[in-house]
Specification:
The structure is a single chain. By secondary structure, this protein is an alpha/beta fold. About 35% of the residues lie in helices and about 10% in strands. The chain is built from nine helices and five strands. The protein has helices spanning about 10-15, 15-20, 50-55, 60, 65-70, 75-80, 100-110, 130-140, 145-150, and strands at about 1-5, 25, 85-90, 115-120, 160. The strands form two sheets. Strands 3-4-5 form a three-stranded parallel β-sheet, covered by helices on one side. Strands 1-2 form a two-stranded parallel sheet. Helix 7 links the parallel strand 3 and strand 4 (about 115-120).
Length: about 170
Amino acid sequence: VLNFNYTNMVDFYFNSEMNERITIINIHGKLNSDSNPIIFGYGDEQDRYEVIEKLNKNEFIKHIKSFGYFKTKNYRLLTSFLDSARYEVAIMGHSCGISDRILLNHIFQNDRCRSIQLFYYKIDEHKNDFIEKTMDISRHFSSNAKGTMRKLIVPFSESKPLLDYPQNN
């Protein structure tokens, strides 16, 4: 499980027996963890990044996520997994915005990726964010890979809404 959340939200979706059998990679760190510190920042080194980099001021790029990824082995664990076997992606609660563009591009456009399953947010009986999420995901595919995107994203008719997370009273 690639967890982008800093909390133990994954535990809500998996029972304790399953948690013992799966590996959870907290790619952006965990709350209150010295060994896996939280990574805040921007993960899109495409577009305007080169202009900022050429300014030769480290202060301007210190919050690029790549530099945070070097603090732990999480990114290497992820790439090792991506290179090891075929996989399916299930997206639960991630915005799929461009702040993680390089990472999501690597996951989605990998030859081993077999499908992208969206668990959408159900607003009411007639509204949800499924189409908006597909538009956000499209930004992680290069222009020559849009056909691949169409093959990978599981259609709405085969998708499910996110479960409601119980709120503490």
